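Quick one:
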Amino acid sequence: MSPNGPNVIRTQAEAQAARKATRFCYLCGEQLRSPGDTRSRITNDHIIPKAVLLPSRDHGDWPFILRVHATCHGQKNSVADDILTPWHRVMSGDSEIYNRQDVAVVRKVCTPLNQQDGLLPATPVSIDTRIPDGVWNWVRGFHAGLFAEYLPNDTRQHAFLPMPQEFLYTTERGTGRRMPGLSVSQMQRQRELILQAIELVSHDGRANTVEFWSGRCTYKAMWLRVSDHFQCWWALCVPNVQRHSEGLGLRGLPWLGGYERTALPDGAIAVSLSEVRAMTHEHDTAYPLPNRGKESG
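Output:
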């Protein structure tokens, strides 16, 4: 952690300190009891599952781990192991990473709207909401580790798939209605601006950062002051994530998204919308989340 700047986790020692400081289960928010208390068994949770990461012999390969309730861990892993990890491996396009079982899972959660031969035709598909929901759990873990603060699952948030919305439709919860998004060029531009803003704020030393697994996993977050609340814009880069959109002939992007908080966490530094627009030279910088109130700055 950084006493005079934004909280960051870049070393194994800092990761271990964050693990000790997080005395609650980041998945449910309840306090963790002592390991000897049989009423609530505690286990270690890899925020990013090992299966998402490529094998490596780098001596700096240390994971980012938090303690959670074993029951919460099992519920999270049922999504991460059964759906999100196979989807990520297949979308990487590397046949040495995924297997036939992974492909079978992807066919179940990614339904092509226009049936074509081939594994992943470049046509709109309906994506199981458990995929972005699984990534949202990763973000909740990073928030807990950085700020020792619980981030509720029902927080107003959105996670962008690392590819254009025109190719991938979202499914509205409750109704199952397909919700087409922006055009390819519009969505690509929006995400590039969000990533550019995060990188510029990071370069200025005002972003919260988690780096682990020899730097091959990087989470960066910037905070934006908006009216009576704050928005956190985040970018998550894991091995091969850029290939998700490169396979469609577009610039590779990481996972991107945003969420809201009524108060700025200790160890976070907020910037104004006017600063973001000045940095990106873009007056109409888009929000990861629609603005609910009057713009600030």
